[in-house]
């Protein structure tokens, strides 16, 4: 999959792309692991072995990595709310990994995911348009073709048939949606369009009423185990 990503990046760069976004779980694949049986545990072992290893226990996270144009690592975001059977495999990301990066082409951030319609329903594009209008930004949601099972691949088993689309802060469709298999879609993004959209609606600016409704984001790690010492140091090898 790394070779495929490198090939797609080179293809996008040949068209002049400065920002390239891959679908969720592009490298590791979407979760289709079975039940908690011997077969399911072996499937999980293989899935775990193929993940990027970090010194953070055995929990897997659906993670996006950010890199600059020189290939330098900028940071990561872990999916905050795995859905459905994903919760058996993926852990919950915390507020520590909701970054926004200042780059030469503008501010970049990702949240996996905001739109609960990333499937084959007709409401997908409408939801993405609403998100673009409400936030006043470019949400380029890349989508994948995803079947619910590997055992019997047929048109009826397809859960998500693609639908990658790029929409402007004013709600105009710039590219896509694509439902014709694997493809690379692109568009020219006018960053001045963001300021024009904020004139209509600035959800965290002059159109907000924080004294009435406010949002609090805890950007600290959520540790599952915390030792509360009542006196002195703990006995034994634990530190």
UniProtKB/TrEMBL annotation:
Family annotation (Gene3D superfamilies): Carbon-nitrogen hydrolase
Superkingdom in the source lineage: Eukaryota
One of the record's GO molecular function terms: hydrolase activity, acting on carbon-nitrogen (but not peptide) bonds
Residues of the CN hydrolase domain: 1-191
SUPFAM superfamilies, A to Z: Carbon-nitrogen hydrolase
Entry-linked InterPro entries: C-N_Hydrolase, C-N_Hydrolase_sf, Nitrilases_CHs
PANTHER family in the cross-refs: CN HYDROLASE DOMAIN-CONTAINING PROTEIN (PTHR46044:SF1), NITRILASE (PTHR46044)
Family recorded in the similarity comment: Belongs to the carbon-nitrogen hydrolase superfamily. Nitrilase family.
Protein name: CN hydrolase domain-containing protein
Record organism: Eucalyptus globulus (Tasmanian blue gum)
């Amino acid at each position: 999959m790394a070779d495929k990503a490198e090939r797609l990046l080179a293809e996008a760069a040949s068209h002049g792309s400065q920002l390239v976004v891959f679908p969720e779980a592009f490298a590791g694949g979407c979760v289709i692991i079975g039940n908690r049986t011997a077969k399911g545990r072996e499937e999980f072992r293989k899935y775990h072995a193929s993940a990027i290893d970090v010194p953070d226990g055995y929990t897997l996270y659906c993670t996006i990595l950010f890199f600059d144009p020189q290939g330098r690592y900028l940071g990561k975001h872990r999916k905050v709310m795995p859905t459905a059977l994903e919760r058996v495999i993926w852990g919950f990301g915390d507020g520590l990994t909701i970054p926004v990066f200042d780059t030469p082409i503008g501010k970049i951030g990702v949240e996996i995911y905001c739109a609960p319609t990333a499937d084959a329903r007709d409401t997908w594009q409408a939801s993405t348009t609403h998100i673009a209008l409400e936030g006043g930004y470019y949400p380029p949601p890349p989508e994948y073709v995803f079947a619910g099972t590997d055992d019997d691949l047929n048109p009826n088993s397809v859960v998500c048939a693609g639908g990658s689309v790029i929409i402007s802060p004013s709600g105009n469709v710039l590219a896509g949606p694509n439902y014709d298999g694997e493809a690379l879609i692109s568009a020219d993004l006018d960053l001045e369009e963001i300021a024009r959209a904020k004139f209509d609606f600035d959800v965290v600016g002059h159109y907000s009423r924080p004294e009435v409704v406010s949002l609090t984001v805890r950007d600290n790690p959520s540790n599952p185990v915390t030792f509360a010492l009542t006196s002195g140091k703990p006995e034994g090898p634990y530190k």
